[in-house]
Amino acid sequence: MTKQKRPLACVGVVCRRGNDVLLIKRGREPLKGKWSIPGGKIDFGEAVRDAALRELKEETGVEGRITRLIDVVDSIIDGQHYVLIDFEAEWVSGEPVADDDAAAAEFVPVEEAMRRVSWDETRRVITPA
């Protein structure tokens, strides 16, 4: 009997500071070298919102406050199905410093974020409500 593949639950954070949004350049696959929002896998037993804030802090050194759930997005890349739970957060403290699996991290104006990010779904969740 073969083991059935299942989706991986992940979080993403659109962290805003004024009119700017926090982006990371991915340091690992999938999509290594592409600009995106901070995020990653949810640990077993971890609350979804806690996972979002943990990933934000681990990848960028920035602390935020979750303000709302933006959407839940499916991504199938390289034979893996990711369920991405994307939150919006308000910047609380810290200056972006790339860490964990991010190669770069910086706040940029939304217009610049739209130019850097290539995936339409990420562009959509970055667009202010």
Write a structural description.
With 129 residues, the protein is of the alpha+beta class. The chain has one domain (8-126): Nucleoside Triphosphate Pyrophosphohydrolase (Alpha-Beta Complex). 21% of the residues lie in helices and 46% in strands. It has 3 helices and 7 strands. Strands 1, 2, 3, 4, 5, 6 and 7 form a 7-stranded mixed sheet that branches. The longest helix has 13 residues, at 48-60. It is globular. The protein starts with 7 loop residues before the first strand and ends with a helix.
Gist?
With 129 residues, this protein is of the alpha+beta class.
Task: Summarize the SSE layout with pairings.
Layout: E1 8-17, E2 20-26, E3 35-36, E4 39-41, H1 48-60, E5 63-77, E6 80-93, E7 102-109, H2 110-116, H3 120-126
Parallel strand pairs: 1-6
Antiparallel strand pairs: 1-2, 1-4, 2-3, 2-7, 5-6
Rg, rounded, reads 14 Å
Sheet/helix structural class = alpha+beta
* CATH uppermost class: Alpha Beta
Predict the CATH topology: Nucleoside Triphosphate Pyrophosphohydrolase
Pattern of helices and strands: EEEEHEEEHH
From the spread of the alpha carbons, the general shape counts as globular
Number of helices: 3
- Roughly what percent helix? 10-25%
Structural key phrases:
129 residues, Nucleoside Triphosphate Pyrophosphohydrolase, seven-stranded mixed sheet
